[in-house]
Specification:
By secondary structure, the chain is of the alpha+beta class. The protein has two domains: 30 residues; 87 residues, Alpha-Beta Complex (Sufe protein. Chain: A), CATH 3.90.1010.20. Helix content is 50%, strand content 19%. It has four helices and three strands, in the order αβββααα. A three-stranded antiparallel sheet has the order 1-2-3, with helices on one face. Helix 3 packs across helix 4. The chain is rod-shaped. The termini are far apart.
């Protein structure tokens, strides 16, 4: 009986090895992106950013849990500021609802008070930057 030899070129071996490495890399990437435990986006708590109106501070408070924006509210809004800037107290409910629903400050603006909304959203972005891990 004659011995049988299998001849394999080095090029074919390299192609197979590259395919195996790329396949393993894709599987590893998919597992890390979609599988496993999700990492926390925020450090839970309430974070504030300040808006100055006529020299008086108003705090925009953003409450977050581990992975969600829970609430957006104004604090330190006194009566004179409410009289001179009624749009802030009027649009905060809408801003809070949209930010919580979208989990972002990036949503279509539909407010009757676009300038006040933009000022509040900039403050929300600052507070969220503090909350991010």
């Amino acid at each position: 009986m004659q011995p049988k030899f299998m001849v394999v070129s080095l090029g074919k071996i390299i192609k197979v090895l590259i395919g195996v490495i790329v396949g393993a890399g894709i599987i590893f990437a998919v597992i890390n992106l979609f599988g496993g435990e999700s990492k926390a986006t925020y450090a839970p708590g309430t974070y504030t950013a300040e808006i100055i109106l006529q020299g008086n501070p108003i705090n925009v408070e953003v409450t977050v849990s581990k992975n969600q924006i829970e609430n957006v509210a104004l604090s330190n809004l006194n009566q004179s500021q409410e009289v001179f800037y009624p749009s802030f107290s009027s649009c905060i409910a809408e801003v809070s609802k949209e930010v919580v629903a979208n989990q972002s400050t990036d949503f279509p603006r539909s407010s009757a008070y676009p300038v006040s909304e933009d000022i509040i959203l900039q403050a929300v972005d600052k507070a969220l930057a503090q909350a991010k891990k």
